[in-house]
Fold:
Amino acid sequence: MSISPSEKIKVSIEGSIATIVIDNPAANTWDRESLPALKQVIEALNADPTVYALVLTGAGEKFFSAGADLNQFASGDADVARAVGEAFGEAFETLADFRGVSIAAINGFAMGGGLEVALACDIRIAEDQAALALPEARVGLLPCAGGTQRLTQLVGEGWAKRIILCGERIGAQQALTLGLVEEVVPTGESLATATALAAKVGNQSPSSVAACKRLIHSARNIAIADGLAAERDEFVALFSTEDQQEGTNAFLEKRQPEWKNQ
Structure:
């Protein structure tokens, strides 16, 4: 029996390695079914003492994950925004706190919440055709799943501002230069490379790995906790603006938004 409650999150376990596949066609988007499912899967893996590492990737050849399903936000309902934001936070923070080693095998576009779930992993391996971005401001939103916090820690404030505030999309080689990913591999090889790296974790003491990870995260988590909560609050606050609804609906209607700055 699968440990995943949703077909949108597929899980297989071989030896000490769990492989999680985001499978929500056509772009592997996140919604209120897949996010709780990811959280439940990580919790189940945490409870399995034989699992030391996990690899996360996207189904298909084009998308790792294109982020949130924007149809959820078309109504401009702040209560929906709060619920989705909290679901993102719970899922991705559970992933970030996985006791073992988590590796993102980025096999295509990683946009918005797709990049944020990779940021929640310990290590990121990208295929050379991958493209990474946090384009939420283009549709009147903001990254609400750790993007403003974790991206800044990895690449520094200047590049975080370029990517988030200027909507700059970067390729895999540039991501490697910036420290956003740890390795770039040819097309089709991210999963095998990530799995081979995950296998090395089996040579380490699981207790030592968990302790080291807690210590590595300790200083960061003191600073990031308030920021993560503030990020979700600011996300929900955008739903009181006209620009949020205009941006989201313009995207869904495939037209340019007409910003009013209100």
